[in-house]
C-alpha cells in the first residue's frame, strides 16, 4: 500500500511539473503571438483584451486537490504530513476535538509575499455571494507571514481555528444556529467559528507548479457553507476522501461520501482516492507485522466494498506517525518509525 501511495505522490509531482511546463509554454506562445500581431499591425484593442484575459486565466489556472471527510479523521494532519513536514512543528493546527472550522485554500501566488487571509464570519450577514466576497479583499483580515520565523508562522496559523462569542440571535441570523455551541449558563451567548474561509499563500515546490490544496472542515461546518461545498468541490481535479481506521466507515462518513463525492452530475473523470488514516491504531506490539498488515489489508477491502470502489483506490496511512517521523527526520527517536521500518521507508518523501 505504502509503495503505491508514494508512487501516486511521485506521479503528482511529475504531472504538476508537466502542467507548469505546459503553462510556461502557452505563455511563451502568446507572447510570440502578441509580437507577431504588433508587427503585422493587427494588434487591435480587442486582440489586446483577449490576450490579457487569456494570460490571466492561464496564470490563475491551478490543479486543485480537495481533502474531504468527516471531522477529526485527520485531513489536516495528512496535509501537514504530505506537504509541510519541513518545519520542526505542525504547520496547520490539529488537535483532538478542535477541528478545522473553516475551509482553507493553500496555494502559491508568486506575485505577493506569503500571507494568511481570513474572511470574517460576520460577512454571512451580508447579501454578497461568496464569489463577490472573494474579490473584495478589504473585507479580509490580512496577516503577512514570515516563513523563516517558526513562532510567528505557528501563531498566525492557529487563527484558522479561532472561535468567537456572539449573541444567539446573531448566530441565528448568520444561519449558524446548528453549528454554534452554547457558551454560558444563560444560553444567550454562543460560540461560532470566527472565519468562513482562509487563504494561505505559502511557498512550496509543488504549490509553485500550480497545485492548490483545499482543506475542508467536517460535515457540520461544510453544511453551513453550502456554496463552498457545491461550488468548490466539483471544480477540484482530485479529491482525497479521508476516513479513520479507528472508527471505520460511519453513517456520517457514508452521508458525506454520497453528498460530496458521489453527487449526481459530478464529472466522472474527477479522480477520487480514499485514505484510510490512523492506520497506527491497528498497530499492535503483540502481533507480527504480517498479522498487522493483513488486518490493514482487510480493512481496506471492507472500505472499498462499502464505498463501492476498487481496493486499489484505498490507501492505508498514518498521517500522524508519518508527520512525526518526518519532522524528526526519521531518527530512531520516533518509536513508531523504529518499530515499523517498512512503513517508514515507504512514506513519501519529496
Ligand atoms: N492516532 C492517530 N491520530 C491521528 C492521525 N491523524 C490525525 N490524528 C489525530 O486526530 C485528531 C484530528 O486530526 P485533524 O487533522 O485535525 O482532523 P480533521 O478534522 O479531519 O482535519 C488530532 O488529534 C490528530 O492528532 C493518525 O494518523 N493517527
Ligand atoms: Mg481539519
Mean pLDDT: 80
Cα shape: globular
| Strand line-up in the sheet with most strands | 4-3-8-2-9-1-10-11-12
Hetero groups bound? guanosine-5'-diphosphate, magnesium ion
Instruction: List how many beta strands DSSP finds.
Output: 12
**Would you identify the regions where 5 or more consecutive residues have pLDDT less than 50?**
1-7, 332-350
What is the ordering of alpha helices and beta strands?
Answer: HHEHEEHEHEHEEEHEHHEHEHEHHH
Q: How much of the residues is beta strand, in percent?
A: 15-25%
SS content category: alpha/beta
Gyration radius over CA: 22 Å
Task: Give the helix proportion (percent range).
Answer: 40-55%
Distance N terminus to C terminus? 18 Å
Sheet having the most strands: 9 strands, mixed
How many helical elements?
Answer: 14
Describe this entry's structure for a reader.
The protein has 350 residues and is α/β, with parallel strands linked by helices. The chain has a domain at 1-61. It contains 14 helices and twelve strands. It has a nine-stranded mixed beta sheet with strand order 4-3-8-2-9-1-10-11-12, sandwiched between helices. Helix 11 links the parallel strand 11 and strand 12. The protein starts with a helix and ends with a helix. Mean pLDDT is 80; it is low at 1-7 and 332-350. It binds guanosine-5'-diphosphate and magnesium ion. Residues 69, 71-77, 94-96, 99-100, 218, 277-278, 280-281, 318-320 line the site of guanosine-5'-diphosphate.
Amino acid at each position: 500500500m505504502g509503495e503505491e501511495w508514494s508512487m501516486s505522490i511521485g506521479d503528482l509531482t511529475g504531472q504538476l511539473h508537466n502542467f507548469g511546463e505546459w503553462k510556461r509554454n502557452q505563455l511563451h506562445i502568446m507572447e510570440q503571438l502578441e509580437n507577431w500581431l504588433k508587427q503585422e499591425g493587427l494588434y487591435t484593442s480587442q486582440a489586446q483584451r483577449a490576450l490579457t484575459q487569456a494570460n490571466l486565466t492561464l496564470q490563475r489556472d491551478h490543479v486543485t486537490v480537495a481533502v474531504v471527510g468527516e471531522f477529526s479523521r485527520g485531513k489536516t494532519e495528512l496535509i501537514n504530513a504530505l506537504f509541510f513536514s519541513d518545519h520542526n512543528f505542525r504547520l496547520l493546527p490539529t488537535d483532538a476535538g478542535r477541528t478545522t472550522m473553516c475551509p482553507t485554500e493553500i496555494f502559491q501566488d508568486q506575485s505577493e509575499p506569503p500571507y494568511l487571509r481570513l474572511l470574517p464570519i460576520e460577512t454571512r450577514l451580508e447579501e454578497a455571494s461568496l464569489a463577490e466576497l472573494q474579490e473584495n479583499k478589504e473585507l479580509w483580515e490580512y496577516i503577512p507571514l514570515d516563513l523563516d520565523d517558526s513562532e510567528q508562522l505557528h501563531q498566525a496559523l492557529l487563527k484558522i481555528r479561532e472561535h468567537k462569542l456572539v449573541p444567539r440571535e446573531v448566530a441565528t441570523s448568520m444561519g449558524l444556529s446548528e453549528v454554534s455551541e452554547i457558551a454560558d449558563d444563560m444560553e444567550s451567548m454562543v460560540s461560532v467559528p470566527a472565519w468562513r474561509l482562509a487563504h494561505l499563500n505559502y511557498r512550496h515546490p509543488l504549490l509553485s507548479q500550480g497545485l492548490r490544496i483545499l482543506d475542508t472542515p467536517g460535515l457540520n461546518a461544510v453544511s453551513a457553507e453550502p456554496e463552498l461545498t457545491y461550488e468548490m468541490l466539483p471544480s477540484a481535479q482530485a479529491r482525497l476522501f479521508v476516513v479513520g481506521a479507528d472508527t471505520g466507515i460511519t453513517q456520517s462518513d457514508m452521508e458525506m461520501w454520497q453528498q460530496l463525492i458521489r453527487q449526481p452530475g459530478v464529472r466522472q473523470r474527477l479522480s477520487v482516492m480514499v485514505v484510510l488514516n490512523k492506520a497506527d491504531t491497528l498497530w499492535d506490539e503483540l502481533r507480527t507485522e504480517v498479522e498487522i498488515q493483513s488486518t490493514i489489508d482487510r480493512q481496506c477491502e471492507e472500505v472499498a466494498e462499502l464505498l463501492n470502489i476498487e481496493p486499489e483506490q484505498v490507501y492505508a496511512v498514518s498521517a500522524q506517525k508519518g508527520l512525526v517521523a518526518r519532522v524528526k527526520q526519521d531518527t530512531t527517536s520516533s518509536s513508531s518509525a523504529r518499530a515499523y521500518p517498512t512503513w517508514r521507508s515507504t512514506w513519501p518523501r519529496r
